[in-house]
């Protein structure tokens, strides 16, 4: 099997690093927090072997991609713009997308803003959430959770960064990857003992995550959360719009996202009103937040089966005429 290739392109005033493997119809993988392209290592090889061109960028603020200063540089429009810039740099008119956590949040917005660039979308962990014109995201969280929700805790510049520094980045990653996360993310009080890594992560994997975050720190990735209000303001023109892209959604039954009130009913009954081409919702038993790492075989099979249905699509994704 060929080795993963690394390249960097310039778009929207920043350098975007991405890893790629294989050739064929393009599939772009969008990672979440606190990750990077490497979190798709268990997908890229499989998709390349299946005949796809697997492309996994470090999103803005992560890994070897630029990390501009300022919360205002991390809105939905900025990140989606980087993804479009990546497609343009690779001369790809369309691609299929697989996305997890914050990557899924961005992926759903990509589908909303630019459905002309998306063949199909597989979202993990974070469902599509329609914009509420009556209340901003932080207002919604405060009315439901008070000040206990982790996204609200992440809003104070420097506070979480200092807490991670005190517990050490390694301890932080052990907590995030090695426990069943909750919406309160009690790591902020600091774990008192070393948490063992899960079976699907090695010490070498952990060291890579730590090294990448040592480069730019945690502020750029936390700015995604701190820009939520800005993103809410900027996306007002899309209020009430539907996501017009074929999609599937997957989540583990122990994912912290399930702890949101009414979540099961929304993904089972409500989301299709906003994503009318939603083909499947799958809940994996015994899986926590990092579904693609915990159960890669099952996740890969679901996505590949879904993408297989587009091999004769008139959009020419498969037929080799997918160039700008």
From TrEMBL:
A GO term for molecular function: epoxide hydrolase activity
Question: What are the alphabetically sorted keywords of the record?
Answer: Hydrolase
Give its E.C. classification number.
Answer: 3.3.2.10
Catalytic activity reads: an epoxide + H2O = an ethanediol; (24S)-24,25-epoxycucurbitadienol + H2O = (24R)-24,25-dihydroxycucurbitadienol
Where the record annotates domain AB hydrolase-1, the positions are 25-296
Q: Which domain of life is it from?
A: Eukaryota
**Can you tell me where the transmembrane regions are?**
none
> Which pathway does it operate in?
Secondary metabolite biosynthesis; terpenoid biosynthesis
Which SUPFAM superfamilies is this protein grouped with? alpha/beta-Hydrolases (SSF53474)
Pfam families in UniProt: Abhydrolase_1 (PF00561)
Function comment: Epoxide hydrolase involved in the biosynthesis of cucurbitacin and mogroside tetracyclic triterpene natural products (e.g. siamenoside I and mogrosides IV, V and VI). Cucurbitacins have cytotoxic properties and exhibit deterrent taste as a defense barrier against herbivores. Mogrosides are nonsugar highly oxygenated compounds used as high-intensity zero-calorie sweeteners; they also possess pharmacological properties such as regulating immunity, lowering blood sugar and lipid levels, protecting the liver, and acting as antioxidants and antitumor agents.
Q: Which family does it belong to?
A: Belongs to the AB hydrolase superfamily. Epoxide hydrolase family.
Know the name of this protein?
soluble epoxide hydrolase
Q: What is the lineage of its organism?
A: Eukaryota, Viridiplantae, Streptophyta, Embryophyta, Tracheophyta
């Amino acid at each position: 099997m060929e080795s993963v290739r690394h390249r960097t392109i310039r778009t929207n005033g920043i350098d975007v690093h991405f890893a790629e493997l294989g050739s064929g119809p393009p599939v772009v993988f969008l990672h979440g927090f606190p990750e990077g392209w490497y979190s798709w290592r268990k997908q890229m090889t499989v998709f390349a072997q299946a005949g796809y061109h697997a492309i996994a960028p470090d999103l803005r603020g992560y890994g070897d991609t630029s990390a501009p200063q300022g919360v205002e540089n991390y809105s939905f429009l900025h990140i989606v713009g980087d993804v479009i810039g990546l497609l343009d740099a690779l001369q790809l008119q369309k691609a299929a997308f697989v996305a997890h956590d914050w990557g899924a949040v961005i992926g759903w917005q990509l589908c909303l803003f630019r459905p002309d660039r998306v063949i199909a979308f597989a979202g993990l962990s974070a469902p599509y959430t329609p914009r509420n014109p009556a209340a901003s995201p932080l207002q919604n969280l405060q009315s439901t959770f008070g000040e206990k929700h982790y996204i609200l805790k992440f809003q104070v510049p420097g506070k979480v960064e200092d807490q991670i520094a005190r517990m050490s980045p390694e301890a932080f990653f052990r907590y995030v990857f090695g426990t069943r996360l909750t919406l309160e993310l009690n790591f902020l009080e600091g774990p008192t003992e070393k948490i063992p890594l899960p079976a699907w992560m090695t010490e070498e994997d952990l060291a890579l995550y730590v090294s990448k975050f040592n480069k730019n720190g945690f502020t750029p990735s936390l700015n995604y959360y701190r820009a939520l209000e800005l993103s809410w303001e900027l996306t007002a023109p899309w209020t009430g719009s539907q996501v017009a892209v074929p999609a599937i959604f997957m989540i583990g039954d122990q994912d912290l996202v399930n702890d949101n009130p009414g979540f099961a009913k929304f993904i089972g009954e409500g989301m299709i009103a906003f994503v009318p081409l939603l083909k499947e919702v799958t809940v994996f038993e015994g899986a926590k937040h990092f579904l693609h790492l915990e159960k890669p075989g099952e996740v890969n099979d679901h996505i590949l089966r879904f993408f297989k249905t587009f091999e004769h699509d008139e959009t020419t994704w498969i037929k080799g005429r997918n160039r700008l």
